[in-house]
Amino acid sequence: MSKYLILIYQDEAVARQAEGESISANYQEFMERRGASLISGAALHPSSTATSIRRDGTGGFLVTDGPFAESKETLGGYYLVEAADLDEALQIGKEVPAGVGVEVWPVRVVS
Amino acid sequence: MAQAAGSEVAAAVADAHRREWAFVLAATVRVAGDIDAAEEAVQDAYASALSTWGGNGIPHNPGAWLTVTARRRALDMRRRAATAQRALPKLVGRADDDGDGAEGDDIPDDRLRLIFTCCHPALPPEGRVALTLRLLCGLSTAEVARAFLVPEATMAARITRAKKKIAAAGIPYRVPSSDELHERVDAVLSVIYLVYTTGHTAPAGADLMRRDLAERGVELARLLRALLPADPDVAGLLALVLLTEARRDARVDGNHDLVLLEDQDRSKWDKHAVTEGIALLREALASRPPGRFALMAAIAAVHDESGSWSGTDWQEILGLYDLLMERWPSPVVRLNRAIALGFAVGPAEGLAELDALGAEPQLARYQYLAAARGDFLVRLGRPEEARVAFEEALILTDNEAEQRFLRGRLGGLAG
To answer: What pTM was estimated for this model as a whole?
Structure first.
């Protein structure tokens, strides 16, 4: 079994509207169905609340408002899942009721 | 087994390389657990064939001999590496076979697994093509680089990246489940078609065709047909490449110059290929709705079955392009439909449709749009505009046979 990180992307405008609401029924349903594969997961506040910290190369930090990459699609949450292979992880990814879509990243095994 | 002469051995090994590489490699991946180790073991097996078949004789079933040898070698390598932690996780999906069942006749045909792994949609398209040529056709990295006109180092990096992704992301060594099979087969067909078309009209170079590459495309289509005999889309692709390849010997003249379909000597067309292609096409068209490759094959078949250019049934071809546009609308299909319209209705109508395509960004650097415009302008008696169009097409092609052809058309313009 391997671990995969599923990053959930959504339209920022849509996400703002939904802010403060409780977890939606379709996510509830997804988590119940795929519970056995989910290791952890969380929903995030809007990207306007994120803060980036970039190393400035001389031992200091550059702290800026917002995520590294500004785009219409923003990171809205994630799941850490366990799957037999990429095909299973992609299947789980397809079932996430994400607004825009998801990215599936294999998690490195550090020995 | 009797002793064999050196030249005989070399020929037998070369033949086995061409015919059996995919089978041997696919069966070895299962035992080796990763693609790199499997490739090394298979290369060793071919090397040992060269050195031992002379003394021991050429085996009756070279593929089985090579597979047994490669699998044994892979097992040795794996046992030696067993204590060391491998940097990359093993290929998944081979837990069902862990022993050294390398003896006997029950070697599983794993080529389908290998095809689906090489053509996995999670790999970048150029990586899929490179891996397919490398792992299924046994081409060296240098050969794959030459086929796609990129430096060898670039191709090596491409192949390494794709292999790394297979291992790191856990792309399985498995035939997809039935619910995703259709989509995954389509990805495989696209790769094979790209290999074929790159050989059919080389993007650059001295010759119109890269025959070796087109032949690889035909072989891959045949292989997939043998492995998935009931799939109508697979039948459609094999029909398409056969019905296109049938015209091969008439496409260039003795000076390696391009001969248009209109001017081809139709007696040079390969009738066996046409017959085989038509039979496959019937099978492909029996499924509803017909797939993209089946429709393209049907268009090729109309040409192949027409006794002359003037007798071509352009209405039929136009109707087939309309169907193709409905299901797979793309700028290139629209371009080809516009050309068919020009012959079915008239050059003015064809030209108007081509001009409407001028704004398509995907066609901005597509030489066939300019060349087709030039041709219709000539037919309409507008040589000055035709000259501009042919000159544009000339700038856009890097294929020397196409360049000579366009220069010839420019030279033939009255003016």
So the answer is: 0.88
